[in-house]
Amino acid sequence: MIARRGFLRSFSAMSYESYFTAKSLRRQPSAIRSLQPMVSLPGMISLGGGMPNPSTFPFESMAVKLKSGETMELAGAALEGALQYSPTPGIPALVQTLTSMMETEHAPPALARSLSVTTGSQDALYKAFEMLLSEDDALLIEKPTYSGTLAHLNAVNCELVCIDTDGEGLVPAHLGATLDEWPAHKKKPKVLYTIPTGGNPTGVSMSYARKQEVYAIAQKHGLIILEDDPYYYLKLDGPRVKSFLSMDVDGRVLRFDSFSKILSSGLRVGTVMGPTPLVERLNLHTQSANLHSSGLSQAVVLALLQKWGEAGWNSHLDMVCDFYRGQRDVFLRALDKHLTGLASWNVPDSGMFVWIKLHGVEDSKALIEQKAVAAKVLLVPGQVFLPDNQVTSYVRAAYSTASPEEMDLAVSRLAALLKET
Ligand code: PMP
Q: Does residue 3 surpass a pLDDT of 50?
């Protein structure tokens, strides 16, 4: 097993109290949940908790047939554990396996860190925002950014401070200037939310050098970085770029990963990893929201990772990246063929999106709603990725599910519309 270096040290340069919202600080550990990890101690007879008796559950065993032809069987203690209430951070063996994988992949500087399994990364993000962001706070976000995050933030009603992005993602100079010039009378932002790889919607990735610049700015201004990286493993060109977590000497990075794009989105398994005080407080939100994420989904992921080992995991990642690289290339060819002169776009090096600027179209939402749907080509209007819901000529296209023929046909339909417009 890989040495768990970062987990043995227990210092952090930061104190987190001032980052937590009043609502989050009022959350207390659940007395019953605190007993949960002790249930599995050797020799323990539990008369505590409100665990149902698994002998009444109707499931004997579950067999999962993989596309490789192999079968994974969930039975006995593993199945019983999966079907019973389990610890809030996740099934311990899965937490340990994922922690080791993260340590190997990111080798973060030594610091007390924890990892919790969440119901997809959306769940972890929701709780992180609930933990760190009040109505009177200001949050630094990239423009454009993920609509799912905006949907939540709009309801929080905090100030969204937009930082420009370019072909390499978030622009450090703009971030630095925004903070340097922050008006003295206003509450200063303390959190930056960023999607560093294969950004949704832009498909753009941040270079390591940029991440270092951003990290230095975060150090200067005392920011916590929320690193939302569900496309990290979908690196289509070149090696994966080291994460913010990998450079986090201070304990200011909370990192969100997801199995949604790699194993299954319906399993709803993601992780949050970062300084123990942050992750433990986030666990308090889980305790009152959903106790823990689905044990069965966790057990499936654990069984798969155990079956695969490192080699199997890596070869699966290669297969997934090969697939999306092929999809991207087909889609880019279709764009070249049909949209040259009618639109402009970037070449994404990761993820599954292309951010397309439609020439001569002021309001892409109107075009999509009024014409594209009727012409049977569906795109997401750029507006939904803009914090101020501003009208834009951009659209987001995903090359993940359409066949090569469908991609060509869809882009030709869009081209016809643009010519007509
Ligand atoms: N963050 C980003 C940037 C995403 O694109 C998505 C999925 N569309 C999520 C988070 C949520 O992913 P999950 O399925 O892990 O909840």
A: no
